């Protein structure tokens, strides 16, 4: 209980996170360039998961950090476990969480990670096992803070009731075109649109730090929408706003997410430093209220 | 906090509200007749919004009230802002709320409105701005009470957490044929029907006063169902019950809403005094339990 | 209030309940054999409803219990009212609840039932009437505990707020193939699957005892899935696991429900003692984490 009340760093100043999912097979020099570029841009929050590149992403990252001579304490490292790729299940057992986190630290070549997220909810989770795993990892200094991913507000409430540590992070898919979490509020009670819960409102009410994964996807692991001829209207508006704000279309797309007062942290998964620079332009602009709504409507949604 | 606990008048005795959306272009004599008829029927609650007739509805209403010599304190006036028709956005900024409410009072030619509803949720709302606007309007005596419209229970909870005033009103679309808010409870867990939340249950649990707009619409801004050949079954049942209760079919349709123990206030938007009289017959009947269910089923829904 | 805090027996050791819906027209000897078999298997929890066989199921059950000479105190009897078959409505009026429960006791030839469930939610329910009915039935010793059926978490919360007795039971349809209550959590925010609420999570958070009806149905009152050629994949996996655990496919299907940590009680409605024996094998096995997920996926759902 004392632990639960302990405040958790939310790193609110870090609104862009470098997602390291796809660096596994990149040449080390490219990865070093990417990381150095991120740091130069003020991005020092890095997102991993034990399954990215089957663990190789974390290894490559560690090598790059080492070769760049970056001080561990100057960066924030987040990783995830809970999806068991070998068995095709979600697994929140004590053994699995501890073993996987131990391997994460080995691969990352670090004594601790700042945040451990449980990747997707194990329907069979035993709260005592999760709790014991977290106590173990926290007491050993292996994990500084815990969070969730791809979970609804009710699932968050359930876990928080039984887990002794604050669960203040939730990483969910969210983009201009995969925006059900916003649509739920704007298109309420119309009889056409249905959503599972109101996570954005819940997060604002309960000080949950949301993170948005796949900010450029048009749907659940579907095509990127930027410069995609399937989506002419949204691209036309993105072009217009890119010109207006003098930034890239990627930056506009991220700025659209950042403009929401829930204060998302956006996980960007590019492996190219030039693209990262273009995306990071989002940090320096704020879309106007009008532009935010125009972009929302251009993405194919209606305002009733 | 002291303010938040202050009790709010809910005007529970006023179960029919005259909606003034469509009076903008009516001759003043017709509007006067309509208002006088409402008052004669015991209806002294009037619903407006800044966007109805682009403001003209409020002006015409004020003129009629003035010419009729009606005492301001004898009627309840509600209006709404938050939909910015000019920009096609929803806007809960402090400036917008204060400016629009100021214009509402000017057009209505009154010192205050009894209730101000925020029309549709601005996804980008800043609670401090809403709160400051409300304090300003309340302290100046311009608004007596505040409420919401077209918002889910989670959205209501979020706003109530941050706003210092009670938010006890929520005006949502609801009719015999746009009845998802009831269907949600009756058709739970069937795998076919899906709803966003359980607003009726939330309202009963938390003493929220719901208001039903478009009580005769068959869907979101779709055809009126009464005497509509597209809906023979419900009209047959309405005919039967109109005969049985010796009232109009409109009255039966409204009585169906009023019969629900959540105690809706029904906003009726007719501009014809003869039709208003027919509708207001609903105040004097109570559908039997059996008739309520039969009508629900005749409207095309099943009971599992 | 004192009453509300009184603890309610949840009979957690009884994870299989014999559902008596279809015994109405069975020969008394068959019913006696069925009940004796249940007791021999450690199943002494029996589920009824006033509408099963139009009351005849309860009568046949009472006759069998009497002829078998079974001590009333050695068994748990649950029944339900609230669906008014005569009028085709749901009815939670005080009169209806008391009258129907009185008739239930007469038919069951017993002084009390252990649990009374309200069968489906009456949209028009008046909490005072329900409360008064419950006080009457409790004070007369006619009902030991109360619960609900086919209700969402929000509906449960609403009723619990106004009813003086703990409402800790909720009987809902749930099976390997009618599994929206699990899908909701596993397929959150994908834009494809939608659910009304998160009842399993709510139940775990609030110590609600869920009961699963129709554990072999493929949908809302749709075909049984076991040995159904329409569902080859799930049957193939059931065959495999039946072999592995050396039990029937029915037992595997029930074990799949029992494996969930919400700790369902499964209502099985077979009228054949041989089939009951096969089903009850579920009590003696526990599916592995892997098998549970494999079966879930074989039933046609995806893990994102």
Secondary structure: elements and pairs:
Three copies of one chain form a homotrimer.
Chain A (H helix, E strand, L loop, with lengths): L1 H4 L10 E4 L8 H13 L4 E3 L8 H13 L7 E6 L1 E2 L4 E2 L3 H15 L4 E6 L8 H13 L3 E7 L3 H10 L4 E7 L6 H7 L12 H8 L2 E5 L18 H14 L3 H10 L6 E4 L4 H8 L8 H10 L6
Helix pairs in contact in A: 2-3, 2-11, 4-5, 9-10, 9-12, 10-11
Folded structure, characterized:
3 copies of one chain form a homotrimer. With 304 residues, the first copy, chain A, is α/β, with parallel strands linked by helices. Chain A has 2 domains: 13-167, TIM Barrel; 174-304, TIM Barrel (Alpha-Beta Barrel), CATH 3.20.20. In chain A, 41% of the residues lie in helices and 15% in strands. Chain A has 12 helices and 10 strands. In chain A, the strands form 2 sheets. In chain A, strands 1-2-3-6-7-8-9-10 form an 8-stranded parallel beta barrel, surrounded by 5 helices. In chain A, strands 4-5 form a two-stranded antiparallel sheet. In chain A, strand 6 (113-118), helix 5 and strand 7 form a beta-alpha-beta unit. In chain A, helix 9 (232-245) crosses helix 10 (249-258). The termini of chain A are far apart. The model of chain A has no long low-confidence stretch (mean pLDDT 95). Chains in contact: A-B, A-C, B-C. The A-C interface holds A 87-91, 93, 120-121, 123-126, 150-152, 154-155, 157-158, 161, 172-173, 178, 180-181, 194-197, 199, 219-220 and C 153, 182, 184-186, 188-195, 197-198, 201-202, 204-205, 259-261, 289-290, 292-294, 296-297, 303-304.
């Amino acid at each position: 209980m004392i632990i639960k009340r302990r405040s958790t760093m939310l790193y609110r100043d870090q609104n862009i996170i470098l997602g390291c999912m796809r660096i596994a097979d990149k040449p080390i020099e490219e990865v070093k360039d990417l990381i150095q570029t991120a740091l130069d841009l003020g991005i020092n929050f890095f997102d991993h998961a034990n399954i990215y590149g089957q663990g190789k992403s974390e290894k490559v990252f560690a090598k790059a950090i080492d070769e760049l001579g970056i001080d561990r304490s100057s960066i924030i490292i987040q990783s995830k476990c809970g999806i068991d790729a070998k068995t095709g299940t979600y697994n929140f057992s004590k053994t699995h969480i501890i073993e996987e986190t131990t391997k994460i630290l080995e691969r990352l070549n670090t004594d601790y990670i700042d945040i451990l997220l449980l990747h997707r909810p194990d329907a069979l989770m035993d709260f005592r096992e999760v709790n014991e795993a977290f106590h173990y990892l926290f007491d050993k200094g292996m994990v500084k803070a815990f969070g969730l991913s791809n979970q609804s507000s009710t699932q968050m409430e359930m876990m928080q009731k039984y887990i002794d540590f604050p669960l203040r992070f939730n990483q969910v898919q969210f983009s201009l075109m995969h925006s059900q979490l916003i649509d739920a509020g704007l298109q309420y009670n119309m009889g056409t649109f249905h959503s599972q819960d109101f996570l954005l409102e819940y997060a604002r009410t309960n000080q949950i730090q949301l993170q948005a994964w796949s900010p450029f996807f048009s749907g659940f692991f579907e095509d990127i929408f930027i410069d995609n001829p399937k989506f002419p209207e949204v691209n036309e508006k993105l072009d217009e706003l890119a010109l207006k704000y003098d930034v890239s279309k990627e930056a506009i797309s991220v700025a659209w997410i950042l403009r929401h007062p829930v204060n998302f942290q956006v996980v960007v998964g590019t492996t190219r430093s030039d693209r990262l620079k273009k995306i990071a332009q989002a940090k320096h602009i704020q879309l106007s209220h009008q532009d935010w709504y125009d972009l929302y409507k251009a993405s194919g949604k209606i305002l009733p």
